[in-house]
Amino acid sequence: MNKSAIYQLSYGVYVVSTWDNGRATGCTANSAMQITSDPATIAVSINHDNYTNKCIEESGRFAISILGENIDPSVIGTFGFRSGRDCNKFDSVTPAIKGYMPVVADACAYIVCEVIDKLETSTHTVFLGKVLDADVLKDDTPMTYAYYHNVIKGKSPKNAPTYDGE
Ligand SMILES: Cc1cc2nc3c(=O)[nH]c(=O)nc-3n(C[C@H](O)[C@H](O)[C@H](O)COP(=O)(O)O)c2cc1C
To answer: Is the CB–ligand 1 distance for residue 28 below 6 Å?
Structure first.
């Protein structure tokens, strides 16, 4: 298998957030995609070991904050390299409450979903969400995963579906 072919898939950079018994939490994710437009349905892939997985499972809802190129890179780091088990990520990143869900206030846009189904892989849960609310928050260019790697020089941590041991 030539993995270079798989690397040519395109992604964005998002924060997938939810409630943990009334406390806002979440993680950085590149794996979010629209599945259908009517009814609007979105899928996210979240590692079994991520605290966010358990919280989405329990709350039955998640929100996607679409990060722009002008986002403070520390937002990606806070949500992508720390765990909500050990810290309150929204202490250092300003939240906004949209559609009753916590989102990153400085994001380009948000999408709020109710979990309607899920698929278990050996490492990740694919949560399928029905869109309940969505809106644009600011004028910014949505960040691509390629921009994150090539311009911000960001790394992929172990729990990202695209991690390849590098
Ligand atoms: C750019 C980037 C993309 C990521 N994509 C995903 C992803 O799609 N799915 C996932 O489960 N983890 C992904 N991660 C890893 C999680 O964000 C990371 O494991 C996080 O610390 C989990 O936090 P939690 O334990 O609070 O849920 C990504 C991290 C980064 C930096």
So the answer is: yes
